[in-house]
Amino acid sequence: MASIDPKFGEALKAYGAIDFNACYNCGTCTAVCSLSTPEDSFPREMVRCSVLGLEDDLKSSLKPWLCYYCGECSAHCPQTANPGELMMSLRRWLTSKYDWTGLSGLLYKSLPISIVAFLLAAIGVIVFAFNTAFNLETIMHAGHNFEMIAIGSVFTLILLPNIIRMWWFVIIKPGIKVSFITYLKSTWDLLVHMFTQKRSLGCDNNQFRWFEHLILVLGYLLLLFTTVFLDWFSSQNLFIIILGYVESAIIFVVTFDFVRSRIKKNKEISKFSQPSDWFFVIWLLLMGLTALIVRAFIDLDLLQHNIWIYLLHMIVLVQWALIIVPFGKWTHFLYRSFAMYFAKLIEADR
Ligand code: SF4
Ligand code: SF4
Predict the structure, then answer these.
(1) C-alpha span between 192 and 217 (Å, rounded)
(2) Is 73 a pocket residue for ligand 2 (Cβ < 6 Å)?
(3) For residue 2, is it within any domain?
C-alpha cells in the first residue's frame, strides 16, 4: 500500500516547488497540456501525488520527464498553483533519488554547498597549475587528458549506475515484465529522443525552442568530439579549427539567448529559475566563450603570455565535468531520453 507523507510538500519546496498546495483539483492543467494523454495523464495527477506525499508513486513515475515545460498549464491554472514548475521540481527531486552518491540532492538543496564545490574545483585547477610553475604546455596536456578521463569515469561511476537505479525504480520494482527483444527493439527510440528531443514538438508553438535545443545539443556534442578526439586546441588542420570555432560560437549564441530569457522572465518557463538552472546555462555559455577565446589566442600567438584564459577555461571545464554533468541539470538530458525509452517498454507491457 502506498504510504502518505504530509511533510513531502515541504521537502519538495527545497527543489523549487511553489504554491502547488493551492490546487483545487479542477483538471484545467491536464486539459490544456498537449502532451498529456488518457494513458499518461499529467500534470494534475502529479500535483495530487505531491500534495498527498505519495513518494513511492512519484519515484516510480516517468510522467515528470514526459513534460517538456512549455508552461501552458501554469498560464491557465485558476489557482496559480504553477503545475509546470511543480513538474520541473519533481524532475530535480527524481534526479536526487536516482543519484546513488546523494550529492545531487545536496547540491540542488543548498546554494552554499554548490558554491563550495565550485570553489574547490577552481582551487584544484589553480594549485595544479602552480605545481607546474604555470607551464602552458604541461597544463594543456593535462587539460586534454582530464577531458578523456572525466568523460569515462563520470559515465561509468556516476551516470550509468544512476540510470540503472532509474530502471529499477520504474520497471523492475513495479514488476513490469519486458522481453529482451523489446529492450533491443526500443533502443532506436532511445537514440532518436536523445539526439532530437522530438517529443517537445508536441508542445504548442514550440518549434523555435525545439530548434534552439537541437542545435545546442548538436553543437555541444560536436564540440566535445572536436576538443577531445580531434584535439582542437593543438590541431593545425584548417577544417578542424573552423569546425571548433563554429561549434563554440553556436553554444555561446544559443546559451546567451537562454540567459537573456531567464533574466527578462518574459516567458512562463523562465519565470522561476533555481540556482541549478542558472549554473547550467551560464557554465555552458562560459564553456563556449572561453573555448572560442583560447583557440583565437592560439591562432593569434597570444596564449603563451595570457595563460590565465586557458586556466579560466580549465576551471569552467572542471566545474562543468565534475559538478554540473554528473549531479546537476545536465543529467536531465540523459534521464529524459531514458524516460522515453522506459515509457516505450512499459507501453509494450500493457
Ligand atoms: S489547473 Fe491548477 S488548480 Fe486546476 S488541477 Fe491543475 S494545478 Fe490544480
Ligand atoms: S509545462 Fe507544458 S508539457 Fe509540462 S505539464 Fe504543463 S502544459 Fe504539459
Answers:
(1) 13
(2) yes
(3) no
